[in-house]
Amino acid sequence: xxxxxxxxxxxxxxxxxxxxxEYRSVVFDESxxxxxxLQEFSAQERIADHAPxxxxxxxxxxxxxRQALVLVLLIAIAxxxxxxxxxxxxxxxPAAREPVEPLRMTVIPLAPEGKVPGTADLEYLYDHSxxxxxxTGAEGVPLPASRRTAHFSxxxxxxxxxxxxxxxxxxxxxxxxxxGGQVRAVRVLLDPDQLEQFDQSxxxxxxxxxxxxxxxxxxxxxxxxxxxxxKVRVQGxxxxxxxxxxxxxxxADHTFVYALRPAGATGxxxxxLFTLRRELHFRFDRDDLxxxxxxxxxxxxxxxxxxxxxxxxxxxxxxxxxxTAKEGGPAGTDPYATGSAxxxxxxxxxxxxxxx
Length: 356
What we know:
Blueprint: H1 30-35, E1 38-40, H2 43-49, E2 54-56, H3 66-87, E3 104-112, H4 122-127, E4 135-136, H5 154-172, H6 175-178, H7 184-187, H8 195-203, H9 213-216, E5 225-227, E6 233-244, E7 247-262, E8 272-284, H10 286-291, E9 295-304, E10 332-333, E11 346-348
Parallel strand pairs: 3-9, 3-11, 10-11
Antiparallel strand pairs: 1-2, 4-6, 5-7, 6-7, 7-8, 8-9
């Protein structure tokens, strides 16, 4: 006889062994119960309120995790900072830029009063000339002690002086420039607004005070002369000053002494000295300082020995050892002396020549 919970015939074939096994796959854990949308009233509640058997539960309020709250806070801070920087940015609004002045240039040839002195002994020439104590190359263009101005920092003043020095070195000391072949090294240092004038000067040289290549740089006629010494002697000064609240100015005044010999000459040919005094006035706005560029606004050159009868617009055509000028200028001019000025042509002072 079967048990009270089992049918008389026993458990049917294929059926579960016990009633509870039918619900074994259903698990009513605590989270399941809490998530249920319907909740059964207790028997006492049903008797007292005559309420239905079940009621709806309010949805659970799930809070944000700590990581999500931090992320939202960071996004809010970043967004607020971006808005603040957009309204109150620390940079000054750039003012309208003043037009860049074209370069005004003057090239004055200095004719020798007699024969150009020369010798095969280069060191003897230097030692018996006013350039005996000059430095060589870029060492002769030292940067002065600089200090900030009312509207420009120390670093900005140094940047202006450094750019001016680079221009001087590239335009008057680079052998590739001096021999008439290279101009790009000088061109890249100029303010973009002056490039058209620069290019026109080399494409169509004109003695109009605006378009002479020898006003931009120093170069000799390669068919006439070549460098006998690549170490050019130099002496001069650099000075920086504030022109106004948006402009720095640098004034350069240097004397260069080149050792030259005839083109294609051998080591036995005599060497002569060529002296060039050059005053340059540079101007820099803040864009120029940032881009390492300069506005060259004045170029004043005195150079000799040259013949006043020959054009020095495109190339300098020096008179070499033993040569004389066809005609001279008004008075003896010493390119080693500061503050001296001449007309369109001058005479090279005897004191400026080496004593051979």
